Amino acid sequence: MNTTTRPTPSAAGRLRVCILGSTGSIGTSTLDVLARHPQAYEVTTLTAHGRIDELAAQCLTWRPRQAVVARADQAADLQQRLRAAGLSTEVLHGADALCQVAADPGTDAVMAAIVGAAGLPPCLAAARAGKRLMLANKEAIVLGGALFMNAVKAGGATLLPIDSEHSAIFQCLPEDRSTWASRIDHIVLTASGGPFRERDPATLASVTPDQACAHPNWVMGRKISVDSATMMNKALEVIEARWLFDLRPEQVRVVLHPQSIIHSMVVCRDNSVLAQMGTPDMRVPIAYGLSWPARIESGASRLDFLGLKPLTFEPADERRYPGLMLAWQALRAREGSTAVLNASNEVAVEAFLAGRLRFDQIAALNADLLARLAVPETAASSVEGLLALDQETRALARQRVLELAA
Predict the structure, then answer these.
(1) Which one of 109, 161, 173, 192 has the largest count of C-beta atoms within 10 Å of its C-beta?
(2) Integer Cα distance of 90 and 169 in angstroms
(3) Would the annotation count 291 as a binding residue?
(4) What EC number(s) does this enzyme carry (predicted)?
(5) Inter-helix orientation angle 138-155/232-244, to 10°
């Protein structure tokens, strides 16, 4: 995580921003923050996978130089619409186009908000190009690990975490990364516990997708909401924190904090505890990523200390959240095992949302894949090796879903 590089703004003095995944919750929140500071930021690129109508509306508002969609037919449709509206936006399509726009010399900063393993290649492209890389795609670092962090270092990129927990840790630490190891004893990631924190674990087999997506504190996409309900999101965040802050697995801990007011904590070597607090609103870490090391208006509500309910903390129940414990297991296994965990979980969540897998089978499937799939020794040494491992895991996970449904 480069702490000295500063992006070079455009001739107009505005930071030029590319948003990968602009129609998702992080993407739309980013645009909300940017709209509050039109003199400071310029949107150069917007991308979306399937929400073409929403992307078209965003392009009409923001008039980016480029837009990227998944398929050629979507690109032709969007290009025709934008031309009819008098926009000169160039519409591209496909995975290679995402990497192209992420590394574009006309962009200073990249908001990486694509969900899943698909976010790794464009994140690597942005890192190698030395961008200000605002990382909301935890799967990129979970999948990429050392390969990803080495790309950040080699490219001279500025890596800024956007997950509320990792942003909280980052905000509690000094700019000089070289001092971190001497300061940190361990970090504590807080977790809301999701919608089933007080539910009898024996009843989780009957959970429906809509119930799993009803998060008590955060408004998120369905995949991330399910991950929150299983606490697999926290497992991925444990892995992400290990790499972001160069920690040993045992230096990353998790505690339930249902109010989501304290977003995470750093326990220092002298046992002082530094915590970042605020209302649960993703615009805060987004605004910090955009403006670091300065601070700008985010649009989030100010914390009212006199109106706060008591802040409580609880241990994470292994019976209720068996998937959480897989994080440390994967980190202690051969490098690349975290990619297996991530890929298996994406397949499991997709199957659950489609009604082909029970809620309680998500963690069981992930544990099964982690135990049974042999990770090649060199898998984590290249993007090709990691993506091959990712695809192998997905194929085996889909086969296991079919077997469990039989």
Answers:
(1) 161
(2) 38
(3) no
(4) 1.1.1.267
(5) 10
Cβ neighbours of 267 (radius 10 Å): 18
Q: Rounded to whole angstroms, what are the CA distances from 312 to 101, 163, 211, 258?
A: 44, 21, 24, 7
Residue 24 annotated as binding site:
yes
Tell me: the pLDDT tens digits for 261-308? 999 999 999 999 999 999 999 999 999 999 999 999 999 999 999 999
29 marked as part of a ligand binding site: no
Q: Is 165 flagged in the annotation as binding?
A: yes
Instruction: Please indicate if the annotation marks 44 as binding a ligand.
Output: no
Give the closest residue to 352 by CA, choosing from 233, 234, 222, 237.
Answer: 222
Please check if 2 is assigned to a binding site. Answer: no
**Annotated binding residue at 94?**
no
CATH number of 333-405: 1.10.1740.10
One-letter amino acid at 179 equals T
| Residue 309 annotated in ligand binding | no
> Side chain identity at 249, as an amino acid letter?
P
pLDDT in tens, 177-203: 999 999 999 999 999 998 999 999 999
350 among annotated binding-site residues: no
Could you state, in order of their start, the residue ranges of all structural domains in the chain?
A: 15-161, 333-405
- Whether 223 has a binding-site annotation, put simply, is no
Secondary-structure class of domain 15-161 per CATH: alpha beta
